[in-house]
Structure formats: structure tokens, C-alpha cells
Write a structure and sequence with these properties.
A hairpin with a 2-residue loop joins strand 13 and strand 14. Helix content is 45%, strand content 17%. It is globular and about 75 Å long. By secondary structure, the chain is α/β, with parallel strands linked by helices. It has 16 helices and 14 strands. The strands form 2 sheets. It has a 9-stranded mixed beta sheet, sandwiched between helices. The protein has a 5-stranded parallel beta sheet with strand order 2-3-4-1-5, with helices on both faces. Helix 7 packs across helix 13 and helix 8 packs across helix 11. This is ATP-binding protein.
Length: 422
């Protein structure tokens, strides 16, 4: 690889980083650790690396020690695994001090993990990003031999979102005006999602649509050699339409077949896994299900509400539940589930085993039938399932405490739920 091109890429990246405005994210890094940052496209991985670079500069590291390479740069289109050493040689030409390597979207280079492992063994300072969940698989961690710490970077959470909008969320300073701003921000967040750069646009939909197309056609279809792009598009649309519902691979296959799409069930399963690997969707399993059913029958959600809202035409109930699912996924390292039992009639939207928490989601419980349904579900849960100890109903705006049959149910408005840390 031509060293002068690498130097030019590095120098241009220094200018970009030095002028970048950083919104502080809720991620922390160990000073002496090497990291792999992975997650959805445009979730803010590069900006976190910019933040780390700016921090190093403030601590006295010189710019020529910062070796930042973005592998989506078209000048690196022919870069191969054997070219990695040219980066090391270029760094040696730029500085006699310790270099800090920042390698962005490294998954584009086949065999990158060999270089990453070698550099870690040489005690180099390494920060790597990628947009592919395979990079965090057990197999990958084994191949890297525990040399890197992993961080899964998601779009803004609500606290980061309101910070970026210059809105305070300090509970001690709440006034009626503050609460009104937070309620409105929660509603905006529910519809627009948390892609950081989307906040730069008044009309966010074209930007979100553009990122969705890049994920669909680049990260899913392109990387996996999918020729049936129409089938992939329609499958994602059908998944969006089934948010809030239990769905099996067989049912999705039959739905596609009924509208004339020829796609095997194995292909449906593969496409869904590709979408998970690209951080477009994730799934929640039934805690009560047998192993085979856990894998084949699930509830699907989108990893950002902005993507879901491209399909559901402001379906507030689906958007609310999807946002609750995302928030629970952020909050807990352990798996989250839903609870469904034909034997007992239990059907609970979310269950968090690590905190023994059961959660129902309802836009409103002002309607007496809706209120009775949500409360009765939780009461039935108490009678048949003793692992749950805390009970919540998340609503759009309502807040109260319900005492019924010896249990306490907390009804929490969306904005308060989104501000919770755990």
C-alpha cells in the first residue's frame, strides 16, 4: 500500500477529528485496554473514537501519534490483509513516539483479526470498529484470545438524545415546563429514533431512509451475496408489521408464499440472521417455551425506532413497545424475555430475570377494558409464576400506583421509564 496515500488519509482524518463536536455518550473505556467497538451503522462508533482521540490530545499525545484509518475510504478499495503492515510502517515514518491506532470499519478487510491479534501481542494501543455482529461472536472472541474488550454501540439513549437537544433531565430541577419538554422529547424520540446525525435535520425521514437502505443493501444484501433484494425488503416490511406479536419462521415463510414470493424457510431464517448481524433487528424469546420453540417462535423488534417508523405509519402502540424493548436491551446485560403460556393464559410483554421484573406496555389504561386486561395479566402472573417480584405498566403519559390483590403495580410514563438507568 502506498505510504503517501496512507499519510494523506491520516492527515485528513486529523482535520475532521479536530473540528468534530462531541456529545458525551454513556460509554467508558479503560485507559490501558484495547477495544473493539461494534454496532449499527451510524450509531456513533466513529464519534466515540473521535472523542477518545480528543481526550488523548488533551492529555499530551501528539497528532502524529494518532493513526486513524477509515476502511470505507474509497482510496482503500484494494486494501488487503497483507497491507496492514504498511500502516505500522507508515506510523513509524510519522512518529518516533508510541502510536495510537484507530481502525474504523475494519470488517471490510478479510483476515483483519490476525493483524489485530498480532498488534495486541506487541502491546500496541488499538481501537477498532465494525458494523457486524459476527465480530462479537464467541468464535471471534476466542480467535482474538481475550486481547480486546468489546463495546456494543447503539444509537442515542434518551438521556443522550435530550442532552444533544440541550434539554436538562436533572430530576432535582424538574418544573412543569421541564416535564413538558421531556414528555415532548420522549414522543419525538419514539417516532424519530436515536441515530445521532439525524438531529442535524429538520426533516429526518429522508436521512433515516437513506441509512436504512445502506444497511439493507450494503450491510445485509451486499455482504451476504443476496440476489433476491425484493424478498429481503418485503421480509423486513412484514417483520415491522408484526412488532408486538409472536411470530414464527414458518408463519413468515407462509406469509411471503401467500403473496407470491418464492423463498424457502431456510432462506427466511438466513435473511433474519443477516439482519440481526447488521444490527437492524433483534428478537425476544418466550421464557416458558421449550428450546426448539425458543429458537423458532420469537417476537422481533427494530434496533432503532426511526427504522420501524418507516413502515408502521405512526402506529403509536408498536412504536411504544419497540422503544421499551430497545431500552430494556440497553439496560440489562442478561437476556430479556416475554412470557406466554397457553396452560395458564399468561401473556406478559417483557420479563427481566436478573431483576425479577415483569412489564406490560400500553399506550393508555384510561379505557376500562384495557386497564382490566393489563392489570389482570399481572395478577394472573403472580398467581402462577413466583419468579417475578416487581410489576410495571409503561404508558405514553399516565402515572399512578395500583394496589390490587396484595400486589403493587407501578404505572410509569414513557419519559420517566426512558430516564431510568437500571
Amino acid at each position: 500500500m502506498n505510504h503517501e496515500i496512507l499519510k494523506r488519509i491520516i492527515a485528513e482524518q486529523h482535520v475532521v477529528i479536530s473540528h468534530a463536536t462531541i456529545i458525551q455518550r454513556e460509554y467508558r473505556f479503560e485507559e490501558n485496554a484495547n477495544y473493539i467497538l461494534t454496532g449499527m451503522r451510524r450509531a456513533g462508533k466513529s464519534t466515540l473514537m473521535y472523542d477518545r482521540v480528543q481526550d488523548l490530545i488533551q492529555k499530551g499525545v501528539k497528532w502524529n501519534q494518532i493513526i486513524y484509518i477509515n476502511f470505507e475510504d474509497e482510496r482503500l478499495a484494494e486494501f488487503r490483509m497483507e497491507d496492514f503492515n504498511d500502516i505500522v510502517e507508515t506510523a513509524a515514518e510519522l512518529t518516533t513516539r508510541t502510536p495510537y491506532y484507530f481502525l474504523d470499519e475494519i470488517q471490510n478487510i478479510e483476515g483483519w483479526e490476525r493483524f489485530a491479534r498480532r498488534m495486541a501481542d506487541m502491546k500496541a494501543h488499538m481501537y477498532i470498529t465494525g458494523s457486524n455482529a459476527i465480530m462479537l461472536s464467541r468464535d471471534m472472541e476466542a480467535r482474538l484470545g481475550g486481547r480486546y474488550l468489546s463495546q456494543n454501540i447503539m444509537p442515542y439513549n434518551f438521556r443522550e438524545y435530550v442532552t444533544a437537544r440541550n434539554i436538562s433531565y436533572d430530576m432535582a430541577l424538574y418544573t412543569s415546563s421541564d416535564i413538558g419538554k421531556l414528555r415532548q422529547s420522549a414522543n419525538d424520540f419514539m417516532h424519530e429514533g436515536g441515530l445521532p446525525e439525524s438531529l442535524l435535520y429538520l426533516d429526518k425521514r429522508p436521512y433515516i431512509e437513506g441509512i436504512y437502505q445502506k444497511v439493507l443493501l450494503g450491510d445485509i444484501a451486499g455482504r451476504n451475496g443476496i440476489r433476491n433484494e425484493m424478498g429481503l425488503r418485503i421480509l423486513m416490511k412484514k417483520i415491522a408489521e408484526t412488532v408486538c406479536s409472536e411470530m414464527s419462521y414458518t408463519k413468515l415463510y407462509n406469509t411471503l408464499k401467500s403473496i407470491g414470493l418464492r423463498m424457502s424457510k431456510d432462506t427466511v431464517i438466513s435473511y433474519i440472521q443477516y439482519a440481526k448481524n447488521a444490527y437492524l433487528i433483534f428478537s425476544v424469546q418466550n421464557y416458558f417455551a421449550r428450546f426448539v420453540e425458543k429458537e423458532s417462535i420469537q417476537r422481533f423488534y427494530f434496533l432503532d425506532n426511526g427504522f420501524l417508523n418507516l413502515f408502521v405509519d405512526d402506529n403509536n402502540t408498536a412504536l411504544l413497545e419497540n422503544l421499551v424493548a430497545i431500552t430494556l436491551l440497553r439496560m440489562y446485560a442478561h437476556p430479556i424475555y416475554y412470557l406466554k403460556s397457553s396452560k395458564t393464559g399468561i401473556y406478559i410483554d417483557f420479563f427481566v430475570p436478573s431483576t425479577q421484573t415483569a412489564i406490560q406496555v400500553a399506550w393508555s389504561i384510561q379505557n376500562l377494558d384495557t386497564r382490566k386486561r393489563e392489570v389482570d395479566n399481572l395478577v394472573k402472573l403472580v398467581q402462577h409464576f413466583h419468579e417475578a417480584q416487581s410489576y410495571y405498566i409503561i404508558t405514553h403519559e399516565e402515572e399512578e400506583t395500583i394496589q390490587v390483590k396484595g400486589i403493587t403495580i407501578q404505572v410509569i410514563p414513557l419519559y420517566r421509564f426512558l430516564l431510568k438507568k437500571r
